[in-house]
């Protein structure tokens, strides 16, 4: 049976500029490429989970404009139920200004998001979830919508014993009560440092930061470490999973979203945490190899093929096909 995943979150149209280096303050530089691609952390996670075989419903909001229509089309085309994504005339659809610095040795990004319609999501928009949330195997949240909506949805899920994943990006201070509703929280190393005041520089500081976040009341902490892979910690385990070696990086914009969606899909399919980390790392490795957020998100067959080529056990994921 396909896992049923609910994503409550953002939809953003990404405007992507590539240059050989980032401009300094007050400086202009010449770029060499420009792309427009559907994105937004919530939409990316919904699309990725659907492409990996989950049955996905998304709750969100877009503006009454051409970007809004394109965002809806992009999510719907991947099989996501968009019946709870509403259109508002109160704000334009969100946009993301994505700058890519592309050199021979690396690709780095800087992103500024103008949240627009995402911040118009209301308690009324999610009220149906008070009882309806019980039908899902996992809820995924992020920090590109109002914090009070995340609080409300997480509380609904907690009351119905539905696991909640919070992808704590882009970083914003998290209310203490919210931690207690969470089954999983997934910051990257920078967001984990913002949460804890602990600069992550090695295995010891990763574990210290994870332990600090666990003390806030969340059951499991996943810290993504870029080229160093990812870890998961809870009161019983501290597991590490390396990144895929020699993965080509063309655009890292949706890597974290791809990872989170893959991890949740795997866990909902009955895998162990170690297997879910491996699956998520391989999914994200494919994502970073292509340009654009949603255009780069892989289908399940591509992930299974990569895992098989890397001699990684993938039979556990065959049911997602």
Structure in words:
The chain is an alpha/beta fold and 321 residues long. It has one domain: UDP-N-acetylmuramoyl-L-alanine:D-glutamate ligase, CATH 3.40.1190. It contains 11 helices and 13 strands. The chain has a 9-stranded mixed sheet, sandwiched between helices. A 4-stranded mixed sheet has the order 3-2-6-7. The protein is globular and about 50 Å long.
Give the strand tally.
Answer: 13
**Mean pLDDT across all amino acids:** 95
- Which architecture per CATH? 3-Layer(aba) Sandwich
Which percent range fits the helix content?
25-40%
CATH topology: UDP-N-acetylmuramoyl-L-alanine:D-glutamate ligase
How are the secondary structure elements laid out?
Blueprint lengths: L3 E5 L3 E8 L11 E9 L1 H11 L3 E9 L2 H12 L3 E8 L5 E9 L4 E8 L8 H4 L2 H4 L5 E4 L5 H13 L4 E3 L9 H6 L2 E2 L3 H8 L6 H12 L5 E5 L5 E4 L4 E4 L13 H14 L4 H15 L12 H10 L12
Parallel strand pairs: 1-4, 1-8, 2-6, 4-5, 8-9, 9-10, 10-11
Antiparallel strand pairs: 2-3, 6-7, 11-12, 12-13
Short description:
The protein has 321 residues and is of the alpha/beta class.
Task: Spell out the key features of this protein.
UDP-N-acetylmuramoyl-L-alanine:D-glutamate ligase, nine-stranded mixed sheet, alpha/beta, four-stranded mixed sheet
